[in-house]
Amino acid sequence: MNTPEDSSLGRDVAYPSTYDAGLLFPIPRLAGRNAIGIGGHTLPFIGHDRWHAYELSWLDARGKPCVATATLTVPCTSTSLIESKSLKLYLNSLNAERFNSAEAVRERIATDLSARAGDEVSVTFGLPEMEDQTTGELIDALDLDIDDYGPPNAGYLSADPAHVVEELLVSHLLKSNCPVTGQPDWASVVLAYHGPRLDRAGLLRYLVSFRDHAEFHEQCVERIFQDVTAHCRPQALSVEARYTRRGGLDINPWRATPGFAVPLARREIRQ
């Protein structure tokens, strides 16, 4: 079984000069899910991991370079997540490969990613529109003293069952660390729910408690979903994290209770 330590993360790796689907490094989701108590069971959520690729290039049939952007969507039901550096190296391996059409490129990427992830991956050219202003209630300006930066402390989470609401809360203060390299990962979190009113101060303290935590992006979002569900008991919940770009890629994991509408794809200005 692949582990994060087996990947190319944190290692000097020569950029590929030829196409190589074997560069893609899948990491089984099961270990991360076991850590939050949902491994081996029916998933309590629906969702996907939406990647934005800003540096995609190949050669046309006559050898002329083509450039594009792309959106890659990996379902949360896939057996494996795709490690980010391996995805970057794989996409760069297309740089010197000739294709008869852009559609042939799209099909090749979709086929390769689906095979490695263990489920059907959607690939489309282009990127979602940029969100020019925050939608929802931004909680970052709360006047708080905070001194807990990890591990994630779900004990801060609480909700008032006397007030059932439907609302959208946003924070730009999520930071966690890569579990292999220790490099920081920065994100904005969009939390939509219907249920007992969440305590804002507790939610912000909880999100900040990820600051020194080492976990992959996808695993952080699943942990947030599980913790809010367990401690606040919403009737419906959606958690999306929009991570800032690294190496020409950004990732946007989304998890929600079954039946929740898929949120409109958007990019943050920091991405």
Characterise this structure.
- By secondary structure, this protein is α+β, with helices and mostly antiparallel strands.
- The chain folds into 2 domains: 4-125, GTP cyclohydrolase I, C-terminal domain/NADPH-dependent 7-cyano-7-deazaguanine reductase, N-terminal domain (GTP Cyclohydrolase I, domain 2); 137-256, GTP cyclohydrolase I, C-terminal domain/NADPH-dependent 7-cyano-7-deazaguanine reductase, N-terminal domain (GTP Cyclohydrolase I, domain 2, 2-Layer Sandwich).
- Helix content is 21%, strand content 32%.
- The protein is elongated, with a radius of gyration of 19 Å.
- The protein starts with 25 loop residues before the first strand and ends in a 15-residue tail after the last strand.
- The model has no long low-confidence stretch (mean pLDDT 94).
Pick out its properties.
single chain; 271 residues; alpha+beta; GTP Cyclohydrolase I, domain 2; 2 domains; eight-stranded mixed beta sheet; two-stranded antiparallel ribbon; 5 helices; elongated
Instruction: Report mean pLDDT, rounded to a whole number.
Output: 94
The total of beta strands comes to 10
Helical content class? 10-25%
Name the helix and strand elements from N-terminus to C-terminus, one letter apiece.
EHEEEHHEEEEHHEE
Placed side by side, the strands forming the largest sheet appear as 5-3-2-10-9-8-7-6
Straight-line distance between termini: 32 Å
Look at the helices and sheets and give the structural class. alpha+beta
Poorly predicted runs are none
Count structural domains. Answer: 2
CATH class of the largest domain: Alpha Beta
